[in-house]
Structure formats: C-alpha cells, structure tokens
C-alpha cells in the first residue's frame, strides 16, 4: 500500500426530512446565493423546503445551471456574487449544480485574471481562496457533495475540463434520499453507472497489497449492482434510495482512493465525448470503460480477474476467457441499467475518434494508472467501442 494523507472535513447530514436542517448550517448573518439548475427543484418541492428552512435569512438566487455546467453560465453567477456581495453559496441540485457552485466559489475570489485558467492550467494555477459553500443534494451520482472536484464545460471551445482544490470542499452536504423519488429513470441509471465507474477508476488498476481498500471498493460495487435494478424498478423504496445515495457518495469521497493507484482514463476520454456530442456523463463512461478493460487487459489482468470473481462469480476458464466474461458481465450490467454502451448507439463515428485522438496528441495527455494511455491508445480504446 502507498503512503497517503487523508482528510475529509465535509459534514454529512443524511436522511429523510433532513433538508430543513440547512438553517442550522448556514451562517445567520450571511448573504446566501442559492444556486440551482433548470427548475426540477421547483416542481418537486425541494426548493420550497429550502426556502421554508431559510425564512428570515438573507438569500438571493441564481437558477438555470445546465447539466454539464458551462463556464459561460458560471461567470454570470460570479457577476451576481460580486454585485450583491454574497458570502455563502448554497447549491441545491445534482453534480452539475454542485460543480458549478464550486467553480463560482473559486472564480469569485480569483482576482483579475480569467478564471478559466483554473481549469485550463489546472496543475499550474493555485486556487488560493474560495467562498464557503453548502450543498443540498438532489441526485446521487457524482460524489461532488463530499469531494474537492468540479468539472466545467466551455461551450465556445467545446472543452470539458476538471479542477480540484480543498478550498471548494463543501462545509456541509444534506442528503435526503427522498429526493430520488422524482428522478427520471435516465438519471437513476446515470447515477448508478457513474458511481460504479468512480469505484472502478480507483480499483481496477494493479495490486499493491491493499486488501482493505479492495474490499471497501468491492462492497460499493456489490451494493450498486444489487441496488441498481431495484431502484430502477421502484424509485420510491426509501431504503433502496438511501443505499443508492450513500453508495454514490462513498464511491468518490476520497476514502477508497487512499493508498492505491488510480486510473481516471475512462473519465478523461468520456469528457471528450460529452464535449463533442453532449452525451450524458455516465453514458460516456459506460461506452469507454469496456474498451479500457479490453485494451489494457494485460496491465490490469490481476484486478480484472479479482473483480470478475468477487463481483460476478467468474471462476472458470483461462485468464483471457475470464477477462472476456468479466467485460461481458460489466456490459450486461450497464444494459440492465438501460444504458447503451457502443459509440454507434449514440451516432458517434470514426470522425469523432479522429478529433479526440488529435486533441489528446496536441495536449500531450497521458492517462491511466501507468500514464501509458497516449493518443494511440485512446484511438484503440474508442475504436474498440464503435
Ligand atoms: O437542472 P434540473 O432542473 O435540476 O434537473 C436535473 C438535470 O436535468 C435533474 N435532476 C436533478 N435532481 C433531480 C432532478 N430531476 C428530478 N428530481 C430530482 N431530485 O437531473 C438532470 C441531471 O442533473 P446533473 O446535476 O447534471 O446530473 P449529475 O449529478 O449526474 O451531474 C453530472 C455532472 O457532474 C460531473 C459530470 O461531468 C457532469 O457535468 N461530475 C462531477 C464529478 C465531481 N465533482 O466529482 C465527478 C463525476 O465524474 C462527474 O464528472
Ligand atoms: Zn463520473
């Protein structure tokens, strides 16, 4: 196991009826900017619950944050923060609203330079400060509610880039599983698949003798494979919704990443598919991940076989046969979750593969736990998924 440091200060308030507790967590004297998405919270009553809880508080609102939140929209919110001197941001929504709010929090205090630098020059730019934020989570999927990451798209250049800094860790996140009740099926499928791949990015690498980390990861995978079909069949089953929500948070709050290698190539390549074609984040992952397993079957061999055996009960055949069966089981699971896994299912052709390959080459990007997925490997992985 590798050396590590781990600190996650995000306070989680979990359970039925917990949204009313937002008033205990926000500073009483703050000007609170409530951020939200396209309006689902107004239809399902979550907005009203937040407003009721914050009666008497000084709040202003910024709505209209889109899925795969854009830099352009975030910068409008930054203007509003400055105009009203907002000093606390409350995100009410899914990963997109949480991510946008993190970027707004950092961009508002970034100074005179263009805050796009935070994303475009992620490893050179230090985010020195950010406004404090809280989250009322309405969609289990990304783990954004308990991590330091955010992913922002720039529509004008068709780019989708991530940044991370502890400065944007939420002060608190409220997780009420009843929010799942109103999710469209598509978002439930997406949430399960996204959380599943988050675990994989931190698990399906190479062994470093870390059995506890492996079993943490496998426990989340098993819970997701059990919970996924159940929550899709009945989204108003409270306990299933609760287990779904907590699994998604645990999948990407940093705990399973410590002491082990991490991959993240599926995400990096998937972001390009969203950038060029607007495909839902989780669906891009379900397309790319089987390709990574196939093309990187040698370097990932031991972990793929362990995953196949412990999650899908695959114990017979040669190593290559076991790997093939494990890839097929993984694809079957996505299909069971009503997610298509081939580029052709989304009308993506070889022309896009060329564009992504060129972009990867130009940026000089190297992905994966061994940093050996270059533009040629990206091309092979995507071609495998046509
Ligand atoms: O916009 P509204 O009207 O709120 O509707 C949303 C949106 O249309 C709707 N929705 C959310 N909660 C609902 C609801 N509808 C009914 N009832 C509810 N309770 O669902 C739609 C999708 O929402 P979105 O926030 O976009 O989904 P998700 O949580 O999957 O977030 C995806 C974004 O997170 C990024 C992705 O790249 C993508 O941009 N990610 C962030 C990560 C992180 N910060 O660590 C990691 C992930 O890998 C991911 O990259
Ligand atoms: Zn993801």
In CATH, the homologous superfamily of the largest domain goes by the name: Dehydroquinate synthase-like - alpha domain
Counting DSSP E segments of at least 2 residues, the number of strands comes to 8
Q: Residue-averaged pLDDT, rounded? A: 98
The biggest sheet amounts to: 6 strands, parallel
Highest-level CATH class of the largest domain:
Mainly Alpha
Low-confidence parts? none
What percent strand? 5-15%
Question: Strand order, biggest sheet?
Answer: 1-8-5-4-2-3
Account of the protein in words:
This protein has helices spanning 22-25, 40-43, 46-53, 71-84, 95-107, 117-120, 185-203, 211-233, 238-251, 265-277, 281-295, 301-312, 319-336, 350-363, 375-384, and strands at residues 11-14, 31-36, 58-62, 88-93, 133-137, 149-154, 159-164, 172-175. The model has no long low-confidence stretch (mean pLDDT 98). The two termini are 37 Å apart. With 386 residues, it is an alpha/beta fold. The strands form two sheets. It has a six-stranded parallel beta sheet with strand order 1-8-5-4-2-3, with helices on both faces. A two-stranded antiparallel sheet has the order 6-7. The protein has two domains: 11-178, Rossmann fold (3-Layer(aba) Sandwich); 185-384, Up-down Bundle (Dehydroquinate synthase-like, alpha domain), CATH 1.20.1090.10. Strand 6 (149-154) and strand 7 form a beta hairpin. Bound molecules: 5,6-dihydroxy-NADP and zinc ion (ZN). Zinc ion is lined by residues 142, 194, 197-198, 267, 281.
